[in-house]
């Protein structure tokens, strides 16, 4: 007697075949976790170096000569760097605290979300750091015109291009077109 679950199982298997992978939910979670760790390693290193550098700035003799605005930008930048570090180290803590609890797919989903939040915070940290450095170096209105295109470049590289690619090159299993052509 068929209770309808067999059709769901077949549909799930069909989705796996359409993706070109034959993996269980746990195998997929393991693969996604390894991929996420590789991605996080790259961003963690960058944000930790940037954050470490930011922490040393306050101890430089020239720091006391900064304007109130520049010191405010510095404090905001340090807070953003700390938040980015927390979000990008978060997936490791999540995994460590939840290992053996049989929630790896959910752990990978949350870790992925934390990574995206970390990227947004890293973008903000980079923009603020660039703003501060260029304000100190140039002391003129050109700063905004240099920082704005760089901020847009980060958004394009880190978010717009991946989202555009996802929208235009979705897998056939998603019911969307698989190329950029209609």
Q: Top keywords for this entry?
A:
182 residues, mainly alpha, disordered N terminus
Provide an overview of this structure.
The chain is mainly α and about 180 residues long. The chain has 5 helices and no strands. It has helices spanning about 5-20, 25-55, 70-100, 105-140, 140-170. Helix 2 runs antiparallel to helix 3 (about 70-100) and helix 4 (about 105-140) runs antiparallel to helix 5 (about 140-170). The longest helix has about 35 residues, at about 105-140. The chain is elongated, with a radius of gyration of 22 Å. The relative contact order is 0.10.
Topology record:
Elements lengths: L4 H15 L5 H33 L10 H31 L5 H35 L3 H27 L14
Helix pairs in contact: 2-3, 2-4, 3-4, 4-5
Write a concise synopsis of the structure shown:
The chain is mainly alpha-helical and 182 residues long. The chain has five helices and no strands.
Percentage of residues in helical conformation: over 70%
What is the CA-based Rg, rounded?
A: 22 Å
What's the helix-strand series?
HHHHH
Structural class: mainly alpha
* Low-pLDDT runs: 1-14, 175-182
Q: What general form does the structure show?
A: elongated
Strand content: under 5%
Q: What is the first-to-last residue Cα distance?
A: 42 Å
Q: Oligomeric state of the chains?
A: single chain
> Taking all residues together, what is the mean pLDDT?
85
The DSSP helix count reads 5
Biggest beta-sheet profile: none
How many beta-strand runs? 0
């Amino acid at each position: 007697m068929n209770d309808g679950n067999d059709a769901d199982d077949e549909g799930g298997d069909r989705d796996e075949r359409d993706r070109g992978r034959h993996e269980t939910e746990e195998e997929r979670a393991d693969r996604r976790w390894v991929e996420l760790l590789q991605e996080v390693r790259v961003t963690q290193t960058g944000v930790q170096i940037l954050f470490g550098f930011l922490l040393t700035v306050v101890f430089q003799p020239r720091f006391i000569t900064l304007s109130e605005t520049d010191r405010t930008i510095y404090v905001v930048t340090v807070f953003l760097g700390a938040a980015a570090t927390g979000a990008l180290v978060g997936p490791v803590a999540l995994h460590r605290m939840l290992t053996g609890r049989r929630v790896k797919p959910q752990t990978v989903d949350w870790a992925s979300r934390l990574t995206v939040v970390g990227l947004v915070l890293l973008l903000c940290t980079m923009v603020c750091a660039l703003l501060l450095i260029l304000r100190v170096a140039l002391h003129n209105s050109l700063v905004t015109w240099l920082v704005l295109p760089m901020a847009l470049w980060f958004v394009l590289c880190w978010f717009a291009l991946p989202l555009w690619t996802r929208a235009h090159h979705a897998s056939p299993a998603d019911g969307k077109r698989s190329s950029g052509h209609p």
